[in-house]
Amino acid sequence: MNEFIKVHGANEHNLKNVSLEIPKNKLVVFTGVSGSGKSSLAMDTIFAEGQRRYVESLSSYARQFLGVMKKPAVESIEGLSPAIAIDQKTVSHNPRSTVGTVTEIYDYMRLLFARIGHPHCPSCGREIEHLSVDQIVSLICKSHEKSTKQTRIMILSPLVKDRKGEYNQLFGNLIKQGYARVRIDGKVYQLKEDINLIKTNKHTVEVIVDRLVLTTEKIADKEFISRLSQSVETALTLGNGFVISTKVSDAGFEFPEVPTKMHDHLYSERFACPVCNISLPEIEPRSFSFNSPHGACEVCTGLGTELKINTETIIADELSVLEGGIIPWASLVEKDGWNRAVLESVSRTHGIDLRAPLNKLTKEKIQLLLKGTGSQVYDVFYKGRTVNGRFEGVVTNLERRYKETDSEYIRHEIEKYMIKEPCPKCKGDRLSDKALSVTIHDSNIAYVSALSVKECKDWITNLEKINVSKREIEISTAIIREIESRLEFLIDVGLSYLTISRASATLAGGEAQRIRLASQIGSKLSGVLYVLDEPSVGLHTRDHSKLIKTLKDLRDLGNTVLVVEHDEQTMLESDYIFDFGPGAGHKGGTLVASGTPEELKNNDKSITGPYLSGKKKITADNYFSKEDLKKIKELGIVDDNTKWIKLIGASGHNLRNIDVDFPLNKLISVTGVSGSGKSTLINETLLALLREEKGLKNDHKAADCKGIIGAELVDKIISIDQNPIGRTPRSNPATYTKVFDEIRELFAQSKTAKIRGYKAGRFSFNVKGGRCEACQGDGQNKIEMQFMPDVYVDCEVCGGKRYNRETLEVEYKDKTVADVLDLTVDDALAFFEHHTKIHDKLMTLHDVGLGYITLGQSATTLSGGEAQRVKLAAELSKKGTGKTFYVLDEPTTGLHFADLERLISIMRRLVLKGNTVLVIEHNLDIIKNSDWIIDLGPDGGKEGGDVIFTGSMEDLLKDKKSYTADAVRKWVL
User: How many other CB atoms sit within 10 Å of the CB of residue 253?
Assistant: First the structure.
């Protein structure tokens, strides 16, 4: 048996003919500096070839439905197993995707509620049962079981419910059918009587089908049961599926002719509420799907949110209406058009001064301008004559146009003033009233989905212990087992704090990756090659042991686990490590060292080994002069001169009404175990409130908070996350950082361009003129091959250059604009060394560790960490104010130990210029180098949300409560 995966001559991307033997059924780590070729070998070579071979084994018919990967640039791979990749790039941005749908937990939950759920009326809350004749008869008989005396009952059929009329014809028909008695509005009448009802009043009419006396002996008598069954069946037919069993409690032994004391019990063979007359459809799993019209909320169609106009963004209250105080109408009121004419008529009628600042108007008048006056008609003087007109208000107008327009431009313009709010009908639960009215032990599916994974596990486990019938236990046992196993897997990978209803789009890359990892553990496959891309991202050091145990469990099932990773703990626990380098881009692509963790520690060629052995520590001191280091030390001290931004009473999501202070002109780390509330505190509260203070748009309202103090102390807020810099191949580092604008201007100044009259736009591949129209500036054409992989071929006309022949005839220093886009950042630095603007922008890319990427590299090929550093470079290239507040969300993603020093130096330089840098981070070396640390916890989800520690690194090391302090003492010191 082949015990190794043997790779020969791998040349994908920057790999330089790499050959290596990967031991099978082991936990293997690929590491090295960013851009050294780790992912190129793991993902783009080994996984790609494993996937390609599997798909090639399928029939040609099956292959046409699969996305097939092209053959990677490698001579051969021997001993390759079927491969499964679990990377970070597949976070779903679909608003309908949740943790429950991704893990299939919600699918099983829907099945559980469909099979043992108890439906209730959405209006009155009465439980609705779906009963056959035999079941109704059994329930009627059961009502007498505990009684030692005889039980007198009447079987009634409801004919009329709360309707006006005299019903003389109905009574006549009942007499013809042989019935003797009716109950009208709760009182029994003989049909032979003269019954006179008031026509204009509402009445309820029920015909008495049978009167019976229940005894223990009669219940055992077949003839009596047959009579009862026939009476119930007759009542159901007359009552359109409803029957009433009424217990008569009048004194005496005989059956009273006109009973007065009656206790009703209504039964139905239909799925409907007999009181509210609301019919329910048959309960099926799709009844609980917010992705199906059968279960989704009618208002938000299952999204749980609605886009609404945020009135705060459309009003400048220090201005008047005519000065543009209602921002969307600013241009309309400047012209003497129809809208201004209507507005003037409305203002005259309601006494609104259009020249007064909006903050001087009453709330009622502001509300009138926003919401309009409905159907009220005004006399509008327009173009020399008076015509009728209505006023719908700015908010009503914008929301109507947003729904009705087919123009993407108009929708985009209106969205500037909109914000997502919970659906007013379902309150964010996504489901219809009928779906939410089905419960198991008084809990509906939305309540259970809102529980954390840990709480949901407890709820499911306790289900058999609560009041659930034996029949329901038999039905649900298999379903519960499936749900429990999936919940257990999520707990094992450190995700116990997530809620089942959490939207996938809000998950961090590491969280999404671990969710897919949990589902793979559940499959219990053997003989598979698992390729993982930094699964430790977003995971606190305390929880790393859970992740490592999971990876080892996969290995122990008989699988090969190949992990691209920079985490020290994962590397030390692995069986074998391959170290790539020595540099990035064209300076990397070779195998520098390999061996067990102990062997790597003692390997002089390894870049990673010295950090693992402790011989080398992460420090940014080499990047600074002695004077700067002295100033950094002084700035790191928090004293009486320090200025602060203060949050008061932050209580969004799981935050527990906490007050948090952020020192300015410092490097701040916000840390804590996964799910402790870091993102809620920073992104959804602090960042959102700061943006509101500066008049910037938020997609959501800020999380609940009593207030913010000190926002005026910063004049610019910059948030740098890991979202892609673009979703199309046209976006690249050169266009994103705007350096390409300067490069195009430079080419436009060349002699040839001036003679031909070419402007800077000629050198853009996004517009007509200079680009190749055969490929529209993409440089490639996609050839669809039906059941074979789609093939991307260089454009035949431009040869992959993106530009037409005339544009490529313009050169600068013997290079065309296409040649410049193919340069790496480091090569471009040398090429443009005499052009200050271009050189400075490129230097920022070099400073953030991206010297190896090409200027024209497609945005879709950048990792999350690389995209984040491109954004950081773009911000660094702008002129700073010295009062900027930077927020970086896990900037260490994808960074090797050697790269961390560069990142720390960049953040330190920003602080030296007077700015504040706040990082949400788990990386212990970043935390160690911070001036101020805020640690949240103690755990995740509902067990988190408190401030465990705030202070300096020295104080943190003395703290006994903080998990972060324990980790720093163990792994860094």
Answer: 8
CA distances from 648 to 341, 694, 695, 709, 911 (A): 46, 19, 20, 8, 25
Per the listing, tokens 């408190």 go with 946
Closest CA to 835 of 927, 917, 742: 742
Q: 569, 563 in Cβ contact below 8 A? A: no
| Token pair for 381 | 């003087």
**Which tens digits make up the pLDDT trace of 208-237?**
999 998 888 888 889 999 999 999 999 999
Distances (CA, A) of 447 to 97, 478, 577: 18, 22, 46
> How many CA within 13 A on the CB side of residue 813?
11
Radius of gyration for the alpha carbons in the chain, expressed in angstroms and rounded:
36
**Which phi and psi angles does 594 have, rounded to 5°?**
-155, 160
User: Terminal CA-to-CA distance of the chain, rounded, Å?
Assistant: 45
Alpha-carbon separation of residue 646 from 19, 595, 706, 708, 862 (angstroms):
56, 50, 11, 6, 36
- C-alpha 28/C-alpha 453 separation (Å) is 30
Tokens of 276: 């509210």
Beta strand pairing call for 305-309 and 27-32: unpaired
Over residues 233-255, the pLDDT tens digits come to 999 999 888 889 999 988 877 88
Measured between alpha carbons, how far is 446 from 424 in angstroms, rounded to an integer?
Answer: 16
- 8 A C-beta contact, residue 578 and residue 31: yes
Q: Which residues of 761-787 are buried (b: 16+ CB within 10 A; e: fewer)?
A: ebbbbeeeebbbeebbbbbebeeeeee
Count of Cβ atoms closer than 10 Å to residue 865 Cβ: 25
Beta bridge partners of 98: 503
In sequence order, the β-bridge partners of residue 205 are: 160, 184
Phi, psi of 700 (to 5 degrees): -130, 160
